[in-house]
Amino acid sequence: MRQLSKPRRRFLAGAYRQALALAAAAAFIYPAAAAAQPGNWPGKPIRLIVPFPAGSFTDTIGRVVADGLSKGLGQPVIVENKAGANGMLGVSEVARADPDGYTLLVTNSSSITINPQLYKKIPYKPSQLTPITTLVESPFILVINPEWAKKNKIETTKDLVAYARAKPGELTYGSAGPGNAAHLSFAMMGNHQNFKATHVPYKGASLAEVAVLSGEIDSVFDVWSAIPQIRTGKLKALAVSSDKRVAALPDVPSIQEGSVPDFNVIIWAGLLAPAGTPEPIKRKLFELTRQALQDPKAQATLSVQGEVVTTGPEAFQQRIDKEIRTWGEVIRRENITLD
């Protein structure tokens, strides 16, 4: 057998050491990619971050999703509430996480399509997240105080618009805070219909609803928690903010029926992951989530929050891009910025 020369042996030994070093470096730099291979995932519990408090609209949806994914994946999916800064704390944590399928996010549309354009300083970009599926859609409900409505002879959205045009600035409306989707929706309606109303911000949607109930303010684009108050007559519903009626309030017209054309605002909750999450993992998450939300028990729980709608990653991304453009136009026109 021919022996290699000493220089040749040194060269091959050096090349071998270099190859080992490169392999070790790759394992150190890309552990998430190795762990995220479809054959290995999931090999441990998954964190599902909800960037809002326990019991909130988003939290309720997140817990239904976590339960369904736990059953489908055979691993615990643990909900962690990371509330604060209007959802930004929790969202930014997921945006910075490894794209290995072990950190997921259930959040609402505002944190993805509004906050990045509204705040001067924000610790994440929408591009740092990849969409998996929408979960629940919920149009706002335009409600007014029934006594105020009776006094001012307001029965429809058309009547409300006429009142606002005739008395610029006198119509008051509430929201869960400056830049909230309800605030921007009312501002957009005013722009569409050429009227000015006075915005009164509150520290939460429930407080804005209470203000309408008490007569402190005239109106609000409310969330679905208002439905019991509507059914008992304590609030008067004029319209839902979508382009069609909803099954939960079949007698309430869409806002387009109420003479506000080209208006269609629907807030959503969705499942997202860090950008770069492998496609096989995204597809598996989408399919398992879609199956989980078809369960009658899950549907019954979520019907209080809105309508279950599972849209795949591509269509979900298109929706996000469109809403970023829409809300950006409203924010710039109204000159709204927050620190």
UniProtKB/TrEMBL annotation:
Keywords: Signal. Residues 1-35 form the signal peptide. Coiled coil: none annotated. SUPFAM superfamilies: Periplasmic binding protein-like II. Belongs to the UPF0065 (bug) family. The keyword Magnesium does not apply. This is ABC transporter substrate-binding protein.
